[in-house]
Amino acid sequence: MKTKKLFTSLAAAVMLSAGLAGTGMAMGQPVHAAGTTQSSNTKTGTVSVKHRTVSAIVNSDNPKLVVVAKDQTNPDQIDSNYTKGQTINVLWSTEAKQGDKTVTLYYIENRTINGKDSFVFIPSTDVTTSGNVPTESAFVEQANNDVKAIQDAYKRSLQYITVTPKSKKGAKIYYAYKKSKKSKKITFAASKKTIKYGKKYKSSMIVKNGKTRYVYIGKKRYVKQSALKIVSAKYAPLNLPDDLKNLIVEN
């Protein structure tokens, strides 16, 4: 396939998913996971989410790949070294003009080529896919939806967190009270007491008061969340369909 006449805005067309083009998407904030087997054991780690892919069988030996570096407008070609019958994964599709024809390209991966971060595509005519390949915008929307659904599931399944003070000086204890029996407003007052550095506390409740979050550690005691670090968390089994569970990677 000749690339010289491919439309020059191909590079711009793929930039929408530049932030999602790696091996996976990290969730917005670290999640301490119970593992992809969804056991209720307490473990620590962060969770990332793999992209959905569509498997494709290569139709012939060594098909040419279309490569677009992020800082260039004209695509190049490279040898693939794929063999006939080999199965590869593609993520999303885009279209490019080649003369009067419209060419469909499937995105495979990001790769460093000649020192440049580049998008790598394979023409749709060179592979047979196992299913429909989404457009770029549909792929991005699905990826964002997957991350949100997994984040929400972890939030719902959280049973408790284990925390400890960040500072070697410990962390100050706060008590919550109402100024009167009729008052609806809760006030947090600092005490002279502290929790010791290195000691761990379980909590199943975090209270937001104004812009400050307080972690409840039992016996009517609270500690500012900013003064604590999470050691681990315990989750109940995740209530997710298998297609979403299979996207979870525990790091």
Please name the defining characteristics of this protein.
mainly beta, single chain, elongated, three-stranded antiparallel beta sheet, 251 residues
How would you explain this protein's 3D organization?
This protein has helices at residues 10-13, 136-157, 242-245; strands spanning 24-26, 47-50, 54-58, 64-69, 76-79, 87-90, 92-98, 101-113, 116-123, 127-129, 158-165, 171-178, 186-195, 201-203, 206-209, 212-218, 221-224, 228-235, 248-250. The chain is mostly beta strands. Strands 5-4-9-8-7 form a 5-stranded antiparallel β-sheet. A 3-stranded antiparallel β-sheet has the order 1-2-19, with helices on one face. Strand 16 (212-218) and strand 17 (221-224) form a beta hairpin. It is elongated. The relative contact order is 0.19.
Count of discrete alpha- or pi-helical segments spanning 4 or more residues: 3
Helicity range: 10-25%
Q: What strand order characterises the main sheet?
A: 5-4-9-8-7
Spatial separation of the terminal alpha carbons: 40 Å
Low-pLDDT segments: 1-43
Number of strands: 19
Mean pLDDT: 82
Which radius of gyration do the C-alpha atoms yield? 26 Å
Shape: elongated
Proportion of strand residues: 35-45%
List SSEs in N-to-C order.
HEEEEEEEEEEHEEEEEEEEHE
Question: Which structural class do the helices and strands define?
Answer: mainly beta
Main sheet, how many strands, which sense, barrel? 5 strands, antiparallel
